Amino acid sequence: MFDIQKAKQDDNFRELKRSKISSKFLNLNGKNLLNLGSNDYLGIASSVALRDEFLKICLNRDWYFGSGASRLVYTSSDEFERLESWFESKFKKSALIFNSGYCANLSCISALNDSDTLFLADKLIHASMIDALKLANANFKRYAHNDNEALESLIKQNQGNVKRIIILSEAIFSMDGDRADIEFMLSLKRRYDNVMLYIDEAHSFFALSELGICGDMGCDIDFILVTLSKAVGSSGAVILSSGEFKDIFINSARSLIYSTSIPPINVAWSNFILAKDHSKRRENLANLINFLNLNSTHICPFVVGENAKALELSNALNELGCFVPAIRPPTVPKGKARLRISLRADLECGDLANLKRLLDENRSH
């Protein structure tokens, strides 16, 4: 059982926050703060203009707030097929909607597991992928983060022992904000016959480009997981694969089979957003990344080490009008506590002045 007292002693006790969002602001305990802690990277989820435009077209449409059944029983709206068709036309792969990225990773990785499969996982992949491997009692090994030499060494050591090796990685890592070397992984796939790639695009799809890193590189990737709850500002996730694997997932992915599907109105909202041009938002997001100059992506970690220091800086930013969460173990390794700054396209560079100044004052940490 979780040790509450120890968590409090380690400055690692967590509580739900009483808050609500309003455009680029988060109202926390009655105070409006610039929201630098969300995954709403393009500012779509909290856009009043987009919301109102969508609601106008909802009248007289069969877009309900509940789906009524798992999709294995029936599909409640043709918006589901419309969304999957959008992905299939863009990625030239079969698409299947899940209720969340966590559900998709948990079920799809479990479904891919058998006694002839070895998974090779980057040390910093998302908890949902690790949970899938553990729950499935899968054969897996982890390699040091973004260490190409270690990854290839594991392939050489194990290639003859299993029927297939599946590499698990994120395209942009959720806590460090750095990119995987997918070009190198593709070269491994070309050089070793039994290597497959499973890439989680949760934090890259639709943010810096419409199709994310994998989509921009082409589709020689076996499994691509995209989420709709981050840059798209909606709910749900989509796994992209071959038609054969889509059938495998439909028949064995437990979170798909045993969950009532997401509401049709959420799927319609995703289709509404995907149909629009968001290039101006992406241009502004790139400007913000350059201005803050902490990282090459919209996820900007500021590692301080100790939990107490991360909390201290988070509270100091709160006083300056910014909400930036302190990220602590087990979300990040012990001794790697940090601020996780999430940039969003509805900000201006001037909004970041107080944040930039405080970070400059604490860079020695």
Automatic annotation (TrEMBL):
Tell me the SUPFAM superfamilies matching this sequence: PLP-dependent transferases (SSF53383)
Cited InterPro entries: Aminotrans_II_pyridoxalP_BS (IPR001917), Aminotransferase_I/II_large (IPR004839), AON_synthase_class-II (IPR050087), PyrdxlP-dep_Trfase (IPR015424), PyrdxlP-dep_Trfase_major (IPR015421), PyrdxlP-dep_Trfase_small (IPR015422)
Which GO BP terms, alphabetically? biotin biosynthetic process
Pathway field of the UniProt record reads: Cofactor biosynthesis; biotin biosynthesis
Please list the cofactors this protein needs. pyridoxal 5'-phosphate
User: What keywords were assigned to this record?
Assistant: Acyltransferase, Biotin biosynthesis, Pyridoxal phosphate, Transferase
Might you give the EC number(s) for this enzyme?
2.3.1.47
Q: Which terms in the Gene Ontology molecular function aspect does this entry carry? A: 8-amino-7-oxononanoate synthase activity; pyridoxal phosphate binding
Question: Locate the Aminotransferase class I/classII large domain: which residues?
Answer: 32-352
Q: What reaction does this catalyse?
A: 6-carboxyhexanoyl-[ACP] + L-alanine + H(+) = (8S)-8-amino-7-oxononanoate + holo-[ACP] + CO2
Task: Tell me the subunit arrangement.
Answer: Homodimer.
Q: What is the lineage of its organism?
A: Bacteria, Pseudomonadati, Campylobacterota, Epsilonproteobacteria, Campylobacterales
Specify whether Manganese is a keyword of the entry. no
Q: Which family does it belong to?
A: Belongs to the class-II pyridoxal-phosphate-dependent aminotransferase family. BioF subfamily.
This chain belongs to the protein called: 8-amino-7-oxononanoate synthase
Q: Gene3D superfamilies, per this entry? A: Aspartate Aminotransferase, domain 1, Type I PLP-dependent aspartate aminotransferase-like (Major domain)
